[in-house]
From TrEMBL:
Keyword Aminoacyl-tRNA synthetase: no
Stated family: Belongs to the archaeal Rpo3/eukaryotic RPB3 RNA polymerase subunit family.
Tree of life domain: Eukaryota
Region (Disordered): 244-274
PANTHER family named among the record's database cross-references: DNA-DIRECTED RNA POLYMERASE, DNA-DIRECTED RNA POLYMERASES I AND III SUBUNIT RPAC1
An example Gene Ontology biological process: proteolysis
Subcellular localization: Nucleus
Gene Ontology cellular component list: nuclear DNA-directed RNA polymerase complex; RNA polymerase I complex; RNA polymerase III complex
Name under which the protein is recorded: DNA-directed RNA polymerases I and III subunit RPAC1
Primary localization: nucleus
HAMAP family: RNApol_arch_Rpo3 (MF_00320)
Record keywords, A-Z: DNA-directed RNA polymerase, Hydrolase, Nucleus, Protease, Thiol protease, Transcription, Ubl conjugation pathway
């Protein structure tokens, strides 16, 4: 902390604007050839840069020797360093935390900001153009799309050194800051200061247009506060100079009472060491999603501080009892822990609150006919119950009876009936009841007609018409009030291009098809999924430093994208989800003790492919609905047991 009794330095005698101008001028001269975002450099580079500045030297030595920082990423001094550094550390934090729910919620929140920008008057097309590079990098995190490689730290650095992508992200973040300030002008206008000779402060509109949206203008405390609040994150800024905060935005604990009233609390982390750097936390009262990291501020410039590596696995994963052990020729620790008295010292009794806290479900990939999602915090029995329910218990509608009036094709009647039964039908099962032993009626049966004929159209060249019979030729014949109740989604085949039969000239078929509601347990044609499977999330631990000559071989023992260079041990896990757990690494004696393999017992990676009857994202809710109804019936039966016993 600065000492009020110390004689002000020449730098501290300068006004805020003079300090910013001086800092920017020096940075522009020194960093003309510097990349937009550098690789991690040791803190020693700052000692060399400020070798003649005693005030800075003490603080740099404190950073190097007594703080938890080990390096720095230098940002090019082009007036956009804050916004560029913020965008980089925001994505870097989400990437390295490996928290898929957080990634999902952060992405949703970013998308929601587009509406804020639209309401503020920004052109929707322009906003999307500047947002696209940021959105694309967010989408590459945890990507499972083969055509879209997963984001790595190296790829992130490469993207931020691409001027077009990097500057687009800067402009987008400036837009968000400006829109947030304009929307909340009443809260932030009192903190605007005059930048003109007449002494009148600008309006928020003027400030946002002139200082925030202008490319190449440095950010002040007001902008930092607004951006952190808009994105629902916290940010720590470490000040190399004691002349860090303009008087009107002095950190909490300082002398300016007004600063504590600014929306977005700023908390100063105190230290008794006179050389310690001031640290200001830009925080929210509530609702923040995560801390994006630390920026280092020097007059007119921001860089990124790199902290010591911390374990990137959740506490739940670090519990070895929760991991199925993968050994060269066997597996271990396969017993479930979700039953009473399974774990010594723990009752294992059901606790709804604890279950809700652990349970996580999030979508990782969605295609027109397929979805992948992750289910976390449940026992394998629950996951398997959902899988079996998806396959065999979720109801659909399929062809059950075929009344053939005429079939002169080469396909036998029984084979043709079987083929027709396997054609998926887009019929809402909630509109029908189970037929059981009832007579067919408009409440339990949907009727289709099929009429097809193959005939020659030109005897000379042998051209024929109607050689193929397609599913699209099935014609719905509404009965009763079905024309009204099913008008919003008329029954039809899911895929009209399915070939039912091939005929020769002169052959024909005519039949009536009765469709009923059923479940896959009765017949596979009623199953709403082509496949439904899950696997446990692989868990890979790099237990010790990997010698440089062995790094390429170790990485090659895993599928592409699983491991990458970096981390404290020379190699780190980039995406464990891509691992097939082939145990290839366990075959090589040189890696003995370096790598430990496993699977997390309560983290399930589901893959579900729909037949088209249901939208893929609707399958899991449908399966849960079926399970809930079955449990309700079970509860009724259990409740009736005491009464039956008493009787």
């Amino acid at each position: 902390m600065s000492n009020s009794e110390t004689k002000p330095s020449e730098l501290e005698r300068l006004s805020d604007s003079e300090r910013l101008d001086l800092g920017q001028k020096l940075l522009n001269e020194e960093g003309a050839d510097r990349p937009l975002v550098s690789e991690v450099e040791p803190l020693d580079v700052l000692l060399q840069e400020y070798a003649k500045n005693r005030q800075f030297l003490g603080k740099i030595k404190w950073l190097k020797e007594k703080s938890h920082f080990v390096g720095i990423r230098r940002l090019k001094g082009d007036g956009n360093c804050f916004y560029r550094a913020f965008g980089f550390t925001y994505l870097y934090t989400i990437l390295t935390m490996d928290d898929r729910p957080l990634h999902h919620f952060a992405g949703q929140h970013l998308d929601s900001l587009l509406e804020l920008l639209k309401q503020t008057g920004y052109d929707e097309g322009v906003v999307k153009d500047f947002y696209e590079p940021f959105q694309d990098l967010m989408g590459q995190i945890h990507s499972t799309d083969p055509s879209r490689p997963a984001l790595t730290v190296d790829r992130l650095v490469e993207a931020f050194n691409d001027p077009e992508k990097s500057n687009s992200i800067v402009v987008f973040l400036r837009m968000v800051t400006s829109a947030f300030l304009k929307t909340n002008a009443n809260d932030y206008t009192p903190f605007l200061v005059s930048t003109t000779d007449n002494g009148d402060p600008p309006t928020m509109e003027e400030f946002a247009n002139r200082e925030v949206e202008a490319f190449g203008k440095d950010a002040d405390h007001l902008q930092i506060t607004a951006l952190c609040t808009a994105l629902k994150v916290t940010l720590d800024v470490v000040y190399l100079s004691s002349a860090h905060a303009p008087p009107e935005t002095e950190p909490v604990g300082g002398e300016a009472e007004a600063a504590s009233d600014m929306p977005g609390n700023k908390e100063e982390v105190p230290s008794s060491d006179p050389n310690a750097c001031d640290v200001v936390r830009f925080d929210l009262d509530q609702g923040q999603m995560f801390n994006v990291g630390h920026l280092l501020y020097r007059p007119g410039h921001f860089d990124l501080l790199v902290a010591k590596s911390e374990p990137d696995s959740p506490d739940r994963i670090m519990d070895r009892s929760n991991i199925v052990e993968i050994h060269p020729e066997r597996v271990g620790n396969v017993s479930s822990k979700s039953f009473p008295l399974q774990v010594p010292g723990e009752s294992g009794a059901w606790n709804t609150e604890a279950f809700q806290k652990k349970l996580q479900v999030f979508l990782t990939r969605l295609l027109p006919d397929q979805c992948e999602f992750e289910l976390v915090g449940v026992d394998a029995s629950i996951a398997n119950a959902l899988r079996r329910t998806l396959i065999a218990e979720v109801p659909t509608v399929a062809i059950e009876h075929v009344y053939i009036w005429n079939n002169t094709s080469i396909i036998q009647d029984e084979v043709l009936s079987h083929r027709l039964g396997l054609v998926p039908l887009a019929v809402d099962p909630s509109k029908l009841t189970f037929k059981l032993d009832d007579e067919a009626n408009d409440q339990n049966t949907v009727v289709f007609n099929l009429k097809a004929e193959c005939k020659k159209t030109n005897a000379k060249d042998g051209t024929v018409e109607g050689r193929y019979v397609y599913a699209s030729q099935l014609e719905w014949d509404p009965k009763g009030d079905q024309a009204e109740t099913m008008a919003d989604a008329p029954p039809r085949p899911v895929n009209g291009d399915i070939v039912i039969a091939k005929m020769a000239p002169g052959q024909r078929m005519e039949m009536e098809l009765h469709c009923e509601k059923g479940i896959g347990k009765d017949h596979a044609k009623f199953s709403p999924v082509a496949t439904a499977s899950y696997r446990l999330l692989p868990h890979i631990e790099i237990c010790q430093m990997v010698p440089e000559p062995l790094i390429p071989k170790l990485i090659s023992c895993f599928p592409e994208g699983v491991l990458e260079r970096g981390g404290d041990n020379g190699v780190r896990v980039a995406d464990a989800r891509k691992d097939t757990v082939s145990r290839e690494v366990l075959r090589h004696p040189e890696f003995e003790g370096m790598v430990r393999l496993g699977r997390i017992q309560d983290h399930f990676l589901f893959s579900v492919e729909s037949t088209g009857v249901y939208e893929p994202e609707a399958l899991l809710p449908a399966a849960i609905d079926v399970l809930q109804k079955k449990l309700a019936l079970l509860k009724l039966a259990l409740d009736a047991l005491p009464a039956e016993a008493a009787a």
